[in-house]
Amino acid sequence: MAVWGGGCTVSPRCCLPPGPTANRTQLEEGTPMGLSPPATTLVRAHGMGGRRAESHVGHRGVCGARPVLWGSGWDVGGLSQGSILIDPPPDLAQLCADEDGFDAITLSENGTMLFFRGEEVWESSQEGSRLHARPLAASWPELGGPVEAALRLHHRQHPQEHQSLYLFQGEQVWAYAGGQLRPGFPRRVEDEFPGVPGGVDAAVECHPEECGGETILFFKGDTVYSFDLALRVTKPRTWLGLGPGPCRAALRWLERYYCVQGTRFQRFNPLTGEVPPGYPRDLRDYFIPCPGRGHGQGNASWGDAGDRCSKMPFQALLSDDTGRTYAFRGGLSFRLDSWRDGHHAWPLRQTWPGLEGEVDAAFAWDGRTYLIQGSQVSTFLSEQGHRQVQGYPRALQEELGVPSADAAFTCPGSAHLYLITGDHIQLVDLMQTPRRAGEPVPLPHNHVDGAMCTDDGVFLFCGPSYHQYPSVAQLLGAKQPAPAQSITTHFFRCPQ
Predict the structure, then answer these.
(1) What is the torsion angle, in degrees rounded to the nearest 10, for the CA atoms of residue 15, residue 33, residue 324 and residue 228?
(2) Which run of H or of E encompasses 474?
(3) Cβ pair 244, 262 in contact under 8 A
(4) What is the pTM of this model?
């Protein structure tokens, strides 16, 4: 639980984000705007014709730096308050008037967004300083034509394939690793993915935490082909919820799945195809910085809580059994382990259905995530998304034997839970019934906002800083706090 003061020295922010709309990278429910890290701009490839591309507008609070949206070897200033260039480039104006969609959308090996359209590609910049323009053939000369579908493979069991970029054309598929065509490619789609027909309209990788296993979803017409990478088995499905017409492009971004049809997009559940209320939406209101369009100023009401580089304390942090890492503050959560794909704030209910308010402490154990709010604790299953366990929330006193907690953590593979209140820490054995907290042990800290334990040790978070201890034993034996380090620099890759 974050406290401004109370033993934590909260330093002033190193700088402020540019302008009153700095949090426009934070967005209303479930919309994929603001793809930083640390900011996002578009990359447009040279070429004529083809279909159009999505864009994302991001900002980084760099002291003295001016935000840049577009450039192809040139920088641009003079932004309007709505994050739109006063005089947009002619190709962007044409893009905004176009009613076509994309051939394919995916993430690159480096976490940038790739938008394929005819003989060109647009790419989001990790640096956010300018746009890089190139024709499609400049990066993938073997293709010899437009891309029909694309995905970044998630296959941890096969490191040589993991994070490879797969590009589809008709009956063939190309696979690239490190920018180079992998040996043995191109191959027939049906040879690489048995049971999947050629000529797919779209494809997207599905991660184990959302699909229960490493899976690829292929879209062709009204049929969705779910391919299990481990079993090498394909199961066809029909998802009526996605509406008429095929997905012309599909994308996974930060645990969320999107189907793009022309200039419209929908978010969908990768297991059922269910679409939440409020969709479809227009790409030009969320992805492309079109003059006179947009969904408002984003969630400016989130203030510093939604700005990953602010010095506002985090109230809780969590590393779960699947390797996912989250940070909580102000009713929002950030995903930290997928930094290559961007750090984005989401309202709690977007990741943990039904959860509202602020999280005071969090920990994971035995495939479950525990989120403490005041005198209550809610529990969610970690696999296949986050599903609330029936019977929760419960009283914290009943569940863990304490009335409240400022911070909590468990270490990988351990059933020992450590609860921190004020300047003391208590041990709870999660295997015992009923659970009771042990005797308080003093800490070398007056107060802790949050805590987390990973294979790298124990992290205590205090104001804008964290203190790292190699083990629980060394934390309990410490007489002085470990050296303070910057949370935003280490965990969010913000400038110092």
Answers:
(1) -160
(2) helix 472-477
(3) no
(4) 0.60
